[in-house]
Amino acid sequence: MSAEIRASRDVIVRTERWGEAMAFYGEVLGLAMTPAGDALARFETGAFALYVERGSAHGPVFEFLVDDVAATRDRLLAAGCTLVEEDASVPRCYLRDPFGLIFNLGRASA
Q1: DSSP state of 3
Q2: How far apart are CA 94 and CA 105, in angstroms?
C-alpha cells in the first residue's frame, strides 16, 4: 500500500526579480497580498494561494503533502524522480518527476 499524497492549494514561484513580482501580482493583477517573511509573500487568488519567494528561479512549484517526507521522497527517487532541493529542518524537498513537473513535498499537518 502506498502512502497517501494530497495536494495543497499552494503554488510557489521563486524569482530574483522580487520587486517586479510584488508589483505585478499585487498592482497589475490586483491580488490581495499577505507578507509571510522577508523573502516570501502570499497572494490569494481564490482557487489557490500563490507564494512568491525571493531566490533563484526554477519555474512554478506545486505542493504535495505527506505524513512522512523522507520515506515518500525515497520512494519517489526510486521511481525516477530527481532531487532539486532539500531542507530537512522544515522538513521539505523539491522533486522533479520523470515528466518535468517540479513539486514541493511537505509534511501534512496532524
Answers
A1: P
A2: 6
Predicted confidence (pLDDT) per residue in 57-91, tens digit = 878 999 999 999 999 999 999 999 999 999 888 88
Beta-sheet pairing, 61-66 with 102-107: parallel
- Cβ(53)–Cβ(95) below 8 Å: no
C-alpha cell at 89: 529542518
Q: Which domains does the chain have, with CATH numbers?
A: 6-107 (3.10.180.10)
Residue in this structure with the C-alpha cell 520515506, named with its chain if needed: 71
Cβ–Cβ under 8 Å, residues 68 and 4: no
**Residue 68 identity:** D
The residue among 59, 84, 85, 81 whose CA lies nearest residue 72 is 81
Q: What are the cell numbers at 52?
A: 512568491
Report the relative pairing of strands 32-35 and 6-15 from DSSP bridges: unpaired
Q: Which three cell numbers stand for residue 37?
A: 517573511
